[in-house]
Amino acid sequence: MSVNAKQVIKKVGIDMNNPKPKNKLVMYGATWCPDCHRSRKYLDDHHIAYDWINIEESVKAAELVSKLNNSMKIIPTIVFPDGSILTEPSNMELEEKLVSSRLNR
User: Between residues 103 and 87, which one has the greater pLDDT?
Assistant: First the structure.
């Protein structure tokens, strides 16, 4: 995807300067979403730090997910510290991105 998450987040009005640990992921999803559960379990099992944002509890987060995904609310949407994005990744895709981002442990 050619869109940069940091640019969209700035336009939507979510504060990217909010103090968060360096090299931390942000996962946007919903509690009813099985792919979100799977991705969260994968990150938890591999001790990868991330912030979880439930798009059902935040209008701005839902708007962000929609803008990042060509007007579709595709979840999970995972934003990496470099601004890159994965949407509905398989565990293999998530692992590959974590390795290339040097976020795996």
Answer: 87
